[in-house]
Structures are given as C-alpha cells and as structure tokens.
Amino acid sequence: MSSTGGQLNAKQRAALLGQARALLTHRRAGTVAALLLLSGGCYTYYLRSLTVRQERRIKKLSNETAGDLKKPKGKKGKSGDALHKLLKYLLPIAGKRILLLLGLAIVRTAFSNRLARMQGFMFRAAFLRKVPLFIRNFTENVILCLLASCVESTANRFLEQLKLKWRSMLTERVHKQYFKQMTYYKLSYVDRRVDNPEQRICEDIPKLCNGLGDLVGEWTKCAVDAVFYTWVLRSYTRTNKYTAIIIAYVFGAGAMTVSVSPNFGKLFKTQASNEGTYRQLHARLRTNAEPVAFYRGVEKEGGLIVSKFKDLVKHQTKLLNTQWRFAMWQDFHTKYLAATMAVVLIIGPFFAGHLRPAETTRGRASMLANMRYHTAVIISLFTALGSLASSSRKLMRLGAHAERILELEDTAKEISAGKDARDQDARGSIQAADDEIAFENAMVVTPADATLVKDLTLRVASGTNLLVTGPNGSGKSSLFRVLGGLWPLTSGVVKKPGGPEGGLAHEIFYVPQRPYVTMGTLQDQLIYPVERSASQGDVIPERELRRLLSEVDLEYLVEREGGLDAVVDWGAQLSLGEQQRLGMARLFYHRPKFAILDECTSGVTVDMEERFCQRVKQLGCTCVTISHRPALMAFHDVVLALDGEGAWSLHRGARAASQAPSAPPLPGAPLAASNNAKARGADALECLEGLQNQGPSKAAAAGGRLIAKAPPFDPARDLAICPPNLALQPRQLSTWQRWKIILRELLGRNRGSLSQLSTILIVVSLRSLLQDRMAALNGRTVEYVLKQDKQAFIRLIGLSVFQALASAVLAPSLRHVADSLSLSWRRQLTAVAHKRYLKRINFYTVSQLAGMQDVDQRLTRDVERLCDDLAALIPSMVKPVVDIAWFSVQLYQLTGRRGMAILYLYAFLGFGALSAVTPDFGALAKNEYFLEGAFRNVHTRLRTHAESIAFFGGGEREGKSIRVIFNNLLAHLRAVVDIRWLYSVADDFFTKQLPHNVTWGLTVLYALDAAKDLADVSAQGQLVNDMRYLASVVTQCFTAFGELLALNKRFAELTGGVTRVSEMLEVMDKADRLHVEEPMRRSMGEASTSGASSIRFDEVDVVTPTGKLLARRLSLLIEQGHSVLVTGPNGSGKSSLFRILGGLWPLTSGSIHQPDGAEADCRIFYVPQKPYTTIGTLREQVIYPLTVEAAAARESAAETTARMQALDSRLDGLMAVVRLQYLVSREGGWGAQAEWGETLSLGEQQRMGMARLFFHNPRFGVLDECTNATSVDIEEHLYRHAAKLGITLVTITQRAALLKYHSVELRLVDGEGDWQLRAIVPEDS
C-alpha cells in the first residue's frame, strides 16, 4: 500500500510539474512580468522602509529644534488638502469649458479611432499591392488628419483659455483679500507669517493654473480614451481579460511608484520659497540702490544675494538628482516595461483564437489590418490608464503651489477679520465721531509686542491743534498707525470721523515725511487717492491746479516735466523737498477736517514751513503734527509728549498759552527723568524742553561775504551738454547679434557645459540606436505572427525587457542632463551678471542711470526662463540631427534615392509652408516678458510703499492700477492664444499628421517594388518585417524633420528672452566701463595744491543723467576742519552734487580731487536721509558696510573672543552717544536679527546712521538731511560729537540751528546753473 501511495504521489507530482511546465510554456511572458512585479514589490518595500526610517529621524530632529524657532508660521497642512480646497473653487469656474473639452476629447478620440482603422486598411492595401484601394484610403486619411489637427488645436486653445480664466479668477480672489482692510500692509509689516506674498501671487498662481490645466486636459483625454478603447477592445476580442491585465498592471505599478515616491511636494515648496527670497533680495537692492551705493555696501548686499543663489542652486541640484533616480524607477515600470507588456497583449491574441490569421494571403492581410488597429487600441489604452495612474508627482508639484497660495489667502482672511499671528482678536474698539479725535484708555503695542503708550486719554476737538513729540521710537507714528487701523488697538477706545472703516483718507488726511507719488500726471498726484476715469477728464481745472502748485512754489514743474498731461515717475524726478511740497498741495486740494502731519516739512525751509502752517489755518483744518521743530510750537494748542515706555503727558502749546495764560494744567502722567539707561523719560523731557525753550531761527543762508559765484551763462557751451544716460542705453542690434552675446557667455566661458553637451550627444545617439533596434524588433514580431513561431516571439519578449531597462536609464538621463545643463547655464549666466552688476556701483548705474527699472526681473525670472528654454532646446536640436543622420542611411538602404528625394522634398516644402504662416513669436514673447515683469514690479512697489499707501487709503486705487496691468497681461496672453491656435493647426498638420501619410506613400512604393512572392509565407513575413521597419524608419525621419521645423517657432519665442537678457548684459558692461574710465576723468587737471586732506571741485558741471544742468563750472575747496553747508531750494541739485562726488553720477566736465591714503570709508563717508538697514544683526547695522570679521579685525586685542568683546564695548559707547542704548536690551542684544527698516523708526534709523559715521570716523562726512527726524537737542548733540571727533562735515539741511557748525555756505540758487559760495558769519558777529 505504501508503495502504491508513493507511486500515486509520484504520479501526482509529475502531473503537477507537467501542468506547471505547460503553464510556464504557454504563459512565459506573463510569468516574466509577474516575477518582475514581485521583485519590484520587494524592492519597493525595502526602499519604503528606508524612507520611513529617514522621515522619522528628520521628524525627531525637527521636534528637538522646534523650540528655537521664533518667527510665527502660517498654519501647516497637507499639500493635497490645499489642492483639494482650491479645486472646489476652480472646477465650478471651469463649468461648461470642461464639458466642451470633454466633447472635443470625444471627437478627438473618434478621429483617432478612425485614423487607426485607416492605417490598418492602408497597411492591408500596401501588403496586397492594391493601388486604387490604397489611394482611396490615403485620401480619406489626409482629410481626417487635417480635421484631427483642427480638433487638437481647438482643444488646446480652449485649454489655454481655461488656464487664463483660472489665473484671472484666482488672482482676483487673492487680490480681493489682499486689498481688503489694508491686508497688503499688515501681511508683511504686522503679521509676517507669510513671506514674499508678491511671489505667491505672480509666480505660484500661474504655475498652479498652468499645471492644473495641463492635468485636466490630460485627464479628460485619457478618461475618454480609457472608456472608449475598453469598450472597443471588449467588442472585438470578446473578452475583458486584456483590459483587466492592463488595469492590474498599470495601477499595480502606479501603487508601487507612489509608495516609493519621495516627498516632492516639500521639495517643490522649498524651491519656490528659495526662488522668492532670491528675487526679493534683488528687488530690495534695486529699491535701495542709492543708499547702498553711497555706503559702498555692495560687497555685503552682494554676498547675501550670492549666498542665497548658492542655496537655491544647491537645493535644485538635490531636487534634480532625486527626480532622476525616481524617474528611472518610474519610467521602467510605467512606460518601458509597460511597452513590453503591450507587445505581449498586441501580438499574443493572434497566435490563437478567432484573431489567428487564416492560411491564405487575404487572411493574413486582414490579420495585418486588424493587428494595426489592435496595436493602436492597446497603446491608447495603456497610455490613457498609465497617465491616470502616474500623476502623483505632478499632483505633488501642484500641491506645493496650492499650499503656498492657500496659506497666503487664509492668512489674509484672518488679518482682514482682525486676528493677529497668535489668532487673537483686537480687544480695543474704534468708534465714529463727528468733529473730534479721541483716545480713551488706549494702549499702543507694536507687532513685536512692545508697549509704547499706556492708558492714553486725549481729546482733539475740531480747531485744536495737537503737536506730538518724544524721542525717536517713542510711538509717535505708531499712535497714528493705530488711529488709521494699520495696527490693531490692543485695548481702550478710539473715536474718529469715519469710525473703523474711515481709515485716514476721508475727513482725516495723512501727510507723511515722504509722500507717496504715483506714476501719472500732476493732476493724478494732487487728487490721490481719488482716481479719475478716462472719460472723466480733468478733476481739477487747469487754473486751480496751477494755483495749488504756486502756493507751494512748484508751478515750474509744469514746464520742466513737459506739461500738465505728461506721465512721469515723480518719485524718481522729484527731490524730497519737492515731494513734501507736492504732499502739502495735495492736502490743500482735499481740505480735510483733520490733517496728520508726520514730519512732512523736514525737507523745506523754515519760511516755507511757516507758510504751510498759515495756509492750513486758513483752510480751517485741525492739525495733528509730529515734529521736532521749535518753530511749530506757535501753531499748536496742545503738546503730547511720549517716552516710548508707556508714559505720556500733555502740555499747553504756544498758541493756547498766548490765548489763555492762566488756564489750569492739562492731565497726564508726568515724564520722569531716570538714571536707568533703559528708561527713556530723560530723553523725552530733554526733547520737550528743546521744543519749549527754542524759538525759530533765521534761515541758514543769511549773512556772509561772497567768496565765489557761478560764471556767466554760455549758450554755446551750456546748451551743448549731452545727457550721460544716452551712453548707457542698449544698442539696436539684430537678432543674431543678440544671440551671439548670450551664446558667448554660455559657451565661451563654461567648459563644463561642453561636457554636458557631449553627454547629451552620446545619450541621444544611444537612444537613436536603441530606437532602431526596437523598430527592427517590432517588425520581427509581426513576421513571427505570420509564421506562427511562438518560441521565437517569446525570445523577443525577453530582449524587449532588456531594451525597456536601457530606455528607462537613457530617457531620464537625457532629461536630467538637460535640466543640469539648464541649471549650469543659469549659474554661469547669473555669475556673469552678478560679476558686473555687483561690482562697484554698477547696480545703481543700471537701475537708476540707465533706467532699467526691471533689472531684478531680468536677472532672476528672465534668466531662469531663458536657460530652461535653451537647455530644453538642445536635445530638440541634437536628437533630430542624429535621427536624420542615422535613419536616412537606413531609408536609403531600403528605398534608394527615390525615398530620400521624397523625404527631403517634403521637409523643404513643409518648412517653407510653415515659415510662411509663422507669426513674430519673438516680439510676442518679449512683450509677455515685459508685462509679467511689470505686474511683478507693481506688486513689489506696493509692498515697498505699503505704509504710505495704507495711510492715504490708497489701497483701492493701487489695486485698480495693479488690475489694469494684470488685465493688460491677460489680454496679451489671450491674443497670443488666438494667434497660436491658427498657427498650431498648420504646425500639427505639417509636422505630425501629414508625415504619416508620406510614410504610407513610401511604404506602398516599397511594397510595389519588392520582388517577393506573396504565396510564400516566409516571403510574406519578410515583406511585412521590411514594411514595418520602413514605416518606423520613415516615421523617425519625419518626427526628426518635424522637430526641426518646430525649431523655427521655438527660436522665435526664445528671441524675446534673449533680447531682454542680452540688453541687460550690455547695459551692465557699459556701466562697468563707465566706472573704469570715471576715475581717470576725476583725476584730470593739475594735482591738488591743498594737500591730501581736502576735497576739491575744479570747473565741475553738475548735470543730471537726463542732461539738465543744475550747477555750471562749480569750483569749491573743502579743507579738513572747515565744514561746508549746502543750501538751496528743492530740486536745485544739492543731493545731485553729492551723487557726483560719490561717483554715482558721471563727471561730464572738470575734475574732482578727493583725499588720498587710508581706506575708502575712512576718507569720505556718506549718510543719506534714510540710512539703509541691511539684513543681519543689530551689530551689523552699526558697522555697515563692513562684515563682523572685518570690524573685529580693527580692534587691538589678540584673540577673536577678545576682539569681539572690544568691538561690542565700543559699539555700546557709540549707542550711548546717539541715545540708542535702549535698543540693545530691547531687541535682545547685539546678535539680535530683525527687519530693521520696519523695526526702527525713521529717527532711530537716522541716529543709527550717525552711529555708523562715528564708528568709521572718516575725515569727511557727507550728511544729506540725515538728522531732520531727530529732536533739536539730539541733532545738536550729534553735530558737536562729530566736531569732537574731528570729522569735517558737508551738510545738506534746512535747519538754521546747524549754521554754527559750518564755516562756508554753498548756495545752489535756482537749479538752472547759478551758485554762490559765502562765508558764514558767526552768531556773535
């Protein structure tokens, strides 16, 4: 029994083994695929486990360091959640458009299906050599191709329109929140949870909409194809197993791919953040170009920019490497191994079943037609399902953009609802009042949670003028930020006309120290923030407008700037004093009940200031003034004194005291003097006493003997001055010359790019060889079907797997090399631009003198786009050339000269036809670049001037201006879509559809010429093999020719970017040559006879970049120890003189001799009106432009630690000199970092600028109204300390109190060339 059972078991085992062997024999391809999937799954699990471990380690480290983060962050969520929320908004907007796209996708699929049928019919006719039947099929195929091109182009047009619609609606939605309740200001200056909001609006929104549109178009087509071809496949195969296999494979491979996918969403978001910060640094440098140029701070600022760019490149390199590794895995499973599976599914059914060919020639011909159609069905189904299953990386990228956009929008909503970064509501209330401004127990707290004013109770009735005083940083302007709603009211009640919605733009009008001026006419400046429509005409009659200008002595602007209708960038054309006078004219026009004057007369003379006050009094306007000028005491009834630590007090002004001398004292907590350095009561008392004890002084120009004056006007000489900026304008060059400039920089200086180009050539050649072998394999598979040789077919499948593996390496490698080349070129081009732009003061020359205001846009976005497009162009150029060279040889071997002649004749005719209908894509692209840059620049401008705009209530007007520019951009993009629609029909037909028909023509000619007996199966197989291979060869040739034809369009589109970037490089080069030649001109003439310690002007013409002569043939000697005061009306050229002295403006005539020896910052040091605050620590603000290492090296200590201690001790002393010692403790020490331009008040910034001057201790200090925001006592203290240090001052000021610190006055009389040099008479003379 046991032996019998053993025999049965042996028989059973043999039977099982036989069944398994048969199964493996019949299903070898499926078994191979299953084993590959199983091995892939194991490898996937292994990689996923490693990824999970790494993520846990990173999360642990993040949790350990989370407590060190101080900056509040926006709410975090999954990027998929953010994308899901935005899709709920965007998809309903699409509405009918998606239905239309769906309808077009159905039509497109119908055409594709019919074309697939026709290809089978034509293959059968060619195989049977039936020419009439072939011609009928060929004619129908050409017509279908033309219709298919029209449908494809129309679908693309509607898709592009949908993208623009989404961009329009999403931008408008974000703008709605952005311009609501002054969110544009609070977002960056109060809340600060969201960085670079303009980057998110101008970059993330279009990238999201474009990517989402492409995905919707892809999904729509794929969904239709999947449904349709699933039904078709079932209808003629009579089974669902093929569809099931495809679905199982595609989604199985897709699931594996998703499981091992890196966190691309986080990587893409970090990359977008790096790009935004890098561009913001460039925009910051352009905005602050003049002070940085004066300070010679380009080394520090350039270091920040270059460092951030290196971080950007480092992260992008990491991203590219990650994408490359993942793409090889993804492409192998979802593309190339899937192609092998598709071959099995295409060929397998024809070895058995009802699809197996009959043993006749016609039967085999029908099988070939069915196989051709079946091939199209399987490939379309695989492509459709594969695209649907492999969209994870695209969704991650879109999710990163969606998360940044939604973070901006949600934060903006919270801000407009009155919540701060800690999700707390403002506890105070703002109420409406008719004729008063009142504070009841109000508390003023900064966004950094520092309390400036406590329990303020104050009533300013109509007709009662209030003067607010106190040391810098005590909360004077902050009080009115609360009043205007810019800052939240922490507690208490504020009453004002208009209530919480009134802002400061209706019955309360705000006039800041530097009034915001817009691009527009003089009329636009005076009526701001009111906006006039194009049909409305002039709001102010010409006579009234001239009267308003004459009241502030600005009527000359009408003629100087080209008339009343001239559109001018007034911020660039007017001096500070002229802008302040224009701001007062704006006040006179609006006639508000209350006017808040925030140091708004610091740049005008005392006489002009008194005229302003008298005029405001005549208008019946109640003034609330922030000022340190004693002359203004006479015009105010009440003085509010603040100390910045919560204390405040009220005092009677000179006007009220003269009217009621015996009135009782006003309420308020007295300001206490204290010996504590942290308490600021003593500073507040000193500031108040300075106002009360000093009366108005005489003008600074009074008295003194005449030393020299301007020579007489010489028309022949003075009218022949050539504007210096003309030499900086880009030349009119041809397109080829522009390309040469770019190619010289990319290829002539970077040997690394040559190796990358060589790598591209090698990879492309290997891909072409591989495609040739794959084409031969495809022909061989059909031959084996005709012969019914299944074993040979299985061997080919094994070879196909290895080909798939090779393709999975080569294709991602080609993309990776192209992306790396793009990054390398961007690094190279940016390095070249940085080398010129960040050298000397070229950044100032390019942006201000040459007028290239969008240079930051060109240097960042335009360079990036150009390098991306150029790098993508290289494979598109190399691949068709290699393909044509290789496959033309194969074509010649098959068809001889006739086939070659047909191929090249079509290429020539197709190129000519396509060139004839190609629009000027270069001009269109250049205009698009310009409009995109303009849209970004107005957003940057809004952020820069956000506080002034918010005070004026100009958010609505600025929003309309931004919408106008955005609508112009959209209009241009829509026009481009229409132009491309008409062109793309011809492009698709000539480069894609029609070549297939030529391929069939060559195929039938080859079949007719073939001397093979169709009765022989082997001859039939060989003919089919040759026909399939020929079709693949011709298709590759035409695809290559099509890519070459498309290069015409791509080159035209690239020309716009090439022009903008090459113009930038040309202007930078001219600026660099200008500053190389400039020192030679400055040393012209005889050597200085006054020694090395002097500044000497010899016959110097002070000329603006546009050629206006401000002072002619100026001769001036400034000797050490003899300070000079520079005076004159606004716009007369005072600051212009120092721009020439500092080398910012070119010297057109004469010579300038400067002190020699020592370092540059020890000879002449410039302190502008608003000292530039750099990114960095509090320590770096004082030592700027030096680095910490360079500053510490100047100390005498031996060790690094000791030198740092000595440096900090020295800085502590300087802060005590400028009365800013409280800042060190308030901000958390010398190592504290903040956005100092926002943290410090203007007065604190000016005193920081003086501390900078004292730290460097130069021989000469050039002060451009750099203390007008400080109190009188502080100002005189600073000038006394400068004299004590032996610094010779060259000062621009309107303050008469500074007269005694100077020996000579240089008066620029009228801004038309006249000047006078006078000795200053001492006070006791």
From TrEMBL:
<dbReference type="GO" id="GO:0140359">
    <property type="term" value="F:ABC-type transporter activity"/>
</dbReference>
<feature type="domain" description="ABC transporter">
    <location>
        <begin position="437"/>
        <end position="669"/>
    </location>
</feature>
<feature type="transmembrane region" description="Helical">
    <location>
        <begin position="336"/>
        <end position="352"/>
    </location>
</feature>
<keyword id="KW-0067">ATP-binding</keyword>
<dbReference type="InterPro" id="IPR027417">
    <property type="entry name" value="P-loop_NTPase"/>
</dbReference>
<dbReference type="GO" id="GO:0042760">
    <property type="term" value="P:very long-chain fatty acid catabolic process"/>
</dbReference>
<dbReference type="InterPro" id="IPR003593">
    <property type="entry name" value="AAA+_ATPase"/>
</dbReference>
<dbReference type="Pfam" id="PF06472">
    <property type="entry name" value="ABC_membrane_2"/>
</dbReference>
<dbReference type="InterPro" id="IPR011527">
    <property type="entry name" value="ABC1_TM_dom"/>
</dbReference>
<keyword id="KW-1133">Transmembrane helix</keyword>
<keyword id="KW-0813">Transport</keyword>
<feature type="transmembrane region" description="Helical">
    <location>
        <begin position="373"/>
        <end position="390"/>
    </location>
</feature>
<dbReference type="InterPro" id="IPR036640">
    <property type="entry name" value="ABC1_TM_sf"/>
</dbReference>
<dbReference type="InterPro" id="IPR017871">
    <property type="entry name" value="ABC_transporter-like_CS"/>
</dbReference>
<dbReference type="Pfam" id="PF00005">
    <property type="entry name" value="ABC_tran"/>
</dbReference>
<dbReference type="GO" id="GO:0005778">
    <property type="term" value="C:peroxisomal membrane"/>
</dbReference>
<feature type="transmembrane region" description="Helical">
    <location>
        <begin position="29"/>
        <end position="47"/>
    </location>
</feature>
<keyword id="KW-0472">Membrane</keyword>
<feature type="domain" description="ABC transporter">
    <location>
        <begin position="1095"/>
        <end position="1320"/>
    </location>
</feature>
<feature type="transmembrane region" description="Helical">
    <location>
        <begin position="242"/>
        <end position="260"/>
    </location>
</feature>
<dbReference type="InterPro" id="IPR050835">
    <property type="entry name" value="ABC_transporter_sub-D"/>
</dbReference>
<dbReference type="InterPro" id="IPR003439">
    <property type="entry name" value="ABC_transporter-like_ATP-bd"/>
</dbReference>
<dbReference type="GO" id="GO:0005324">
    <property type="term" value="F:long-chain fatty acid transmembrane transporter activity"/>
</dbReference>
<dbReference type="GO" id="GO:0005524">
    <property type="term" value="F:ATP binding"/>
</dbReference>
<comment type="similarity">
    <text>Belongs to the ABC transporter superfamily. ABCD family. Peroxisomal fatty acyl CoA transporter (TC 3.A.1.203) subfamily.</text>
</comment>
<dbReference type="GO" id="GO:0007031">
    <property type="term" value="P:peroxisome organization"/>
</dbReference>
<dbReference type="GO" id="GO:0006635">
    <property type="term" value="P:fatty acid beta-oxidation"/>
</dbReference>
<dbReference type="GO" id="GO:0015910">
    <property type="term" value="P:long-chain fatty acid import into peroxisome"/>
</dbReference>
<dbReference type="GO" id="GO:0016887">
    <property type="term" value="F:ATP hydrolysis activity"/>
</dbReference>
<keyword id="KW-0547">Nucleotide-binding</keyword>
<protein>
    <recommendedName>
        <fullName>ABC transporter domain-containing protein</fullName>
    </recommendedName>
</protein>
<keyword id="KW-0812">Transmembrane</keyword>
